[in-house]
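Entry
Fold in token form

___
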Amino acid sequence: MDGGAPEGNLKDAPPPIKFEDGWNIKPDMIIEMPKDFQVKATGTINYQNILVKAHFTEDKWVVAAEMRPGNAKVVHHMRTIVRPPESKWLASAVPGEAYEEGSEAMGGAKDGTDLLGKYNPGLGSQNFDVDGSAKFIPKGSDIVFNIHYTSIGTPQTDRSKVGLVFAKTPPKKRYWMSPGTPAAFNLVIPAGDSNAEVVSEVTVGVDNAKLVYIQPHMHLRGKSFRYEAEYPDGKRETLLDIPRWDFNWQLRYDFAEPKLMPKGTKLICTAHFDNSEENLSNPNPKATVRWGDQTWDEMMIGYFTSLPPEEK
């Protein structure tokens, strides 16, 4: 910097990244919302669920997925969910129509569904080919776009999509978003508190599960986030430490090598929140903040995925 940031030798530069028409992956299949969603100019917009008939005529294994917002100005975040043919979730929904959480058309619970891919600001494509694994889409499944929109003062439209890369051969293991994610649904952040601590944890119930991916999630008052593993012998290891959380840069973290988690290991997540006036992103430093879907509420989630242990 003192030298004026002179350019280095171009021969030492890495090759430029090549994108596939804007994708970070080369999709074998692209699934798009069948029509635009109308985003109102003002007011709160509850989570929307949009059913898409994907016409999967055979079982499919997915090694990578990428969600792309049609209008990034209004897409707060979104998820792509596999709805297997036997699911009663959104049973009476009209394909392409949007339904709010709790609406009559939502039908039964989400049992049997699986998270296929997601989009957060800063998050790119997701890879599921870890140690020979892949995501599974049963024959006859549909796709549901679960989207959180935010109004920006003018009417907008969105038509988002997801790209999928299929495995060439059946995988050795199924990549599944692990249940029992550490999450503090009962969090209470006092007004004006600049360093409120919230802790959540889960205990591994099988021996030698393989931890392959972690991703923290908070909102605008998020300050820091740390994952730790406490092993049965008492040893404690830091897996990920983010001292300065940035809501606009929500990355996923994949381990270079899967980490073995013996039965009884505790996965502990510790987060801090800044609910003071010093946090310039704080929607209201005078409010006591609790769990909620909207950006001005808060969340504390330690997403992770673990593969099952090797079969003997």
Q: What stands out?
A: The longest strand covers residues 60-68. Residues 37 and 158 are 5 Å apart (CA to CA). The chain has two domains: 29-171, 188-307.
